[in-house]
Amino acid sequence: MSVLPFPSFLDDVKEKGLRKAVFEGADEVVERLTAGLNVQDVRDALRGEDPTRRPNPRLQPHADGFWLHMRPSYYNRQVTGLYPSFRLGWLSTYFVFFETITGIILMFWYTPSPEIAYGNMLSMLNNVPFGQFTRDLHRLGAEAMVLIVFLHMLRTFYTGSYKKPRQFTWFTGVLLLIFTGFLSFTGYLLPWDQLALWAVTIGASMAEATPLVGEQVNLLVRGGPEMGANGLLRFYMAHVLLLPVLLFIFTGVHYYKVVIHGHSLPPREENPGEDTAKRVPLDRRVYFIPDVLTSELMWFGVTSFILIVLCIWFYHAPLESHADPQVTPLGTTAPWYFLWIQGALKLGDKTFWGVIFPGILLGFLMVVPYIDLNPARRFAQRRLAFSISFLMLTALVVTSYMGLAEFGVATAPDQEILNELTFEPAHNHMGLLRPVNFDQLATGAFTTREFAGGAEHGPSGVAAFNDMLQQNGEMEHLLEHLETQFLSLPTLRFTPVPANAPELVHVLEEFAHLLEAEQVELLDSWGVVIITPNQGNLKRLDVVINWQEVEIVGGTPVLDDSGNPIPVFNDDGAPVRRTSSVHIFINEQSGYFN
Amino acid sequence: MDLQRLLIDRMENRILVGLTMVLASMVLVGWVAINETGRMASFQQQHLARSVEKGAELFSSSCATCHGNSGEGSARAPGLNNPQLFGHDYLAPLDTQIAAVETRIARFESLTATMVDEEARSQLSEEEFTAVQADLAAIIEQFGEDPLTSLNGELTTLVTNRANLILQMQSAIDRGYDPEDPSRMNNVGWGSTLETFVLTTLVSGRPVSTNYWPEPMAAWSQTAGGPLRDDQLQDLANYVLNWGHERNWTLEDLLRVQQFAKEPVEGAVQIVENPVAAEIIDIQFADVTGRRDEIDAVVARALDEMAELTGDPNNGQSLYNGSLACSACHNLATVAPPTEGTFTRVQDTRLADPNLAGYSAEHYIVESILAPNAHVVEGYPANNMPQNFGERLDAQLLADLVAYLSSQDGADPLAN
Q1: Is the dihedral of CA A139, A140, A143, A145 positive or negative?
Q2: Does the distance separating the beta carbons of B28 and A536 come in below 8 Å?
Q3: CB–CB contact A540 B56 (8 Å)
């Protein structure tokens, strides 16, 4: 007779006593949760003891439970250590989940619209607890994931693990590499800052080079001729929906194939053409419960800890100024993992190097296991494959280097120097003038002639500079030039940099060096820094470079027989002097100098 | 491999390392949480500072032309580096002191009255009486035997200081500053913050300001068809507000302002006591011929009245640009002939019209104001100008208006 009108736990208590009923009830709950292991089994497993009953209860969760049905119940001892996998496949999977979770959190704070997106970034940074932290984790995870997935591919290649019967596993792996790259790339745009807009504009401009349908592809990707509201929304949808779905599906396929064919053993453990991975001898079996499970939990702890430490002290996701299609920053590059395409583009034809070449390369990667029919997995027997791979790796490094802004893009040296002195914080660097302490930005006009080598330097150099400007009428030109930059000054008198401004001295010295290094193209040049007060806590800094123009053909100065540049003279036979300048405002609270 | 043997092969070590790492991660996340408030605040400040820098750049290229390089204002737009905009009240400290002295005088007078008045005194209880005595004693102790004289002396000094202070502001007052009503926000009845005032002004511009400035302020926001993005407007607003950042406004700051805000005068019809020509309002173009004699008589009477008076062109200008809103139409020659060169145009062009034989320039201008349909300039629509100025103006206002229009004797933009 039940205590209640239906059978219940109370009946057990009545029958067996409270203590026994509770223990048995707990046992049952645990057994249901673990799909087969009772409390005793779990305790045994965690103590590293052998299973106490037969059949082995630790295999039960793999057979009955959902979560473990996709994991093998035992591994070959050879593949559970660091070598040969370096845990790269596991790490890739870790990042899939890590990015999904951090990404979902970020989605709560983000609206994919050019009007709001950047403001969202700011509010995430100044108004959302853990906002910056989560963003840092997501961004770092994204960059790390691209690297890890790529290394995973290299490892698989060098251990020959892609060979029969694992060809299709490799194929899906290359797909996953591509999805990872595109996921990272589409995410790049979302903050809608200058870095995002221009890196993605460069990347997406390659789509335009697609043969025959380039224009259509371009329109499809960007939702318009330029990256705007539609483009942002499309990238967002691809980033949070299309690509993750593809990634999850193919991660499933990939892992299914890994389990079906077994993890490949180190090359020396498997004979050529023979796959022993699935038939694991009894003495080499390592069971998932408890060994692999605890190992994975440990790696989970270690990896998360490393990421957290990095994001607290060493890495912060970049955020530059608001995206502005009108202003192209100097030295724009694609994201680092696409630099190789940008470098290849500098070799010539946009369509070939931007679309066909990467297409062939990725296509070749996908079919490698179907082409490379050599069954051997040992290094010594795969000389050709290794040679080709080293060639490709070298090409990747070289083209990536060529993709950097400093390679092959001719910018006028005066613009380079002005940029070097003033550029906004980007890629964790900033113009030399910005970090100068606000107190040391003394109001006044200062010249590089004070720090130039040669006879006239120091205070006498400044005096000579003042005299020179007065005599040859350059002073008037300078004032007129500043007027066009919306700075009206009645007069200008250069003075030596005050002794209590060593940081400013340092910048002007550096400025003088930069000019000196370019003295062939910037003949007889001088540079000045003019600091004027603007508001109580705000100063205006004008940097001006003036030089004598020389003949330039194809971006390099023409040299005469004795190796000197040839000055340009105007119709009256007077040397032509040119001026360029840039100005910035510095606020006391901007924190560049922390 | 040692790592392999120590960590990976021994399960208890794996569990230990994993647990340690998870715990350490939790500690670190907790540490982040503790520092989060400070981090967010410092980011906020730093971002605001950098936004001001960007705003400075935009201001120097887009706004300084009219509002002045350092926000001092010009004849084209009011100063923004301006205590008026930030609502600084120079008189407030003195006013507080004056109010305090006045309160004290009132208190003393009421206490003395109570003591003198037998009836009032008899109504006080013992305690109340002691309290009144104590109060009086305290005032006398503080201000001497004759507190009223000394308090009144103090009051006089304060009032003189106040007047002197206003005197020192005279040049600002001449440029339109009102020390008694020093807050722009109050003047326009703005119910929100200064920041939103600046922002909304930037967003939509000031189309109506044509009435009192030579040109309207453009709408700067892309939302309103202008050139700037919302974040840039925010940068600009931050820059403008930065003029008031921890600022102790001095008199020099006020005197440095070249131009103060102009108030749009009420557009409603003003009541004048002696309308100059109430009889001839609302005459439609078709009725002009029939009522020609009447018009002539009234205009002649108005001219007679005006002959006794001297017009003030400055007041005429404010009427023209302000309450009468003439400049709203008389600006671009599309709706009505432009203001520029009105007098030249009347003399050189209009009076050459045979219909206007025998008219003086003044006669023509007065008639055109009081009965706009009497002579409509070719190319402009009839019945278009308000026909009620006869009841909105008295002789003096009309004289002011004519004095102002007479000063428009530069080149006539319509003459070619």
Answers
A1: negative
A2: no
A3: yes
Domain-located, residue A498: yes
**Do A473 and A570 fall into the same domain?**
yes
Q: Are A357 and A392 in contact (CB under 8 A)?
A: no
Q: Which of A50, A126, A310 to mutate to test the interface with B (most CBs of B within 10 A)?
A: A126
Burial class (CB in 10 A: 0-12, 13-18, 19+), B42: middle
The reply to whether residue B21 touches residue A295, judged by beta carbons under 8 angstroms, is no
Query: C-alpha angle with apex B58: B54 to B64, nearest 5 degrees?
Result: 135
DSSP-based three-state secondary structure for A150: helix
- Closest partner CB to A132 (pick from B20, B39, B247): B39
Q: Pick from A269, A296, A326: which residue ends a domain?
A: A326
Are B20 and A301 within 8 A, CB to CB? yes
B34 touches chain A (CB under 8 A): no
Q: Do B53 and A126 touch (CB under 8 A)?
A: no
Position A99: which residue type? E
The minimum CA-CA distance between A70 and chain B, rounded to whole Å, is: 23
A288 and A145 share one domain: yes
Instruction: Let me know whether A58 and A160 are in one domain.
Output: no
On whether both A105 and A61 belong to a single domain, the answer is: no
Supply the ipTM of this predicted assembly. 0.86
A contact test, residue of B14, B27, B223, B236 with most A CBs within 10 A: B14
Let me know if A322 is exposed, middle or buried by CB neighbors in 10 A (0-12, 13-18, 19+). buried
Q: Does B50 contact A132 at a Cβ distance shorter than 8 Å? A: no
Flag whether A126 is in a domain: yes
Say yes or no: A325 contacts chain B, CB-CB below 8 A: no
| B-chain residues near A422 (CB < 8 A) | none
B91 contacts B180 by C-beta, under 8 angstroms: yes
B20 neighbourhood in chain A, CB within 8 Å = 301
Q: Which of A93, A198, A187 is nearest to A143 (CA)?
A: A187
- Domains of chain B, by residue range, sit at 2-49, 92-168, 278-406
Q: Both A18 and A109 in a single domain?
A: no
The CATH number for A84's domain is 1.20.810.10
Residue of A nearest to B53 (CA): A585
Q: How many domains, in total, are found in chain A?
A: 3
Please state, in angstroms and as integers, the Cα–Cα distance from residue B72 to each residue in B27, B75, B181, B251, following that order. Answer: 54, 10, 20, 14
Cα angle A84, A89, A90; round to 5: 105
What is the residue-level pLDDT of chain A in tens, covering all 594 positions? 677 888 888 888 888 889 999 999 999 999 998 888 889 888 888 888 888 888 888 888 898 888 898 898 889 888 888 888 889 999 999 999 999 999 999 999 999 999 899 999 999 999 999 999 999 999 999 999 999 999 999 999 999 889 888 899 999 999 999 999 999 999 999 999 998 998 888 877 777 777 888 888 888 888 888 888 999 999 999 999 999 999 999 999 999 999 888 888 888 877 766 666 677 888 888 889 888 999 999 999 999 999 999 999 999 998 988 998 888 888 778 888 988 988 888 888 888 888 888 899 999 999 999 998 888 888 888 899 999 999 999 999 999 999 888 776 777 889 989 999 998 887 778 899 999 999 999 999 999 988 877 666 788 888 888 988 888 888 988 999 998 888 888 888 999 999 899 999 999 999 999 998 888 888 888 999 999 999 989 999 999 999 988 888 877 788 888 878 888 888 888 888 899 999 999 999 988 865
Domain residues for the domain of A133 are 75-326
Write down which residue in A326, A359, A377 finishes a domain.
Answer: A326
Who among A118, A125, A133 is closest to B231 (CB)? A118
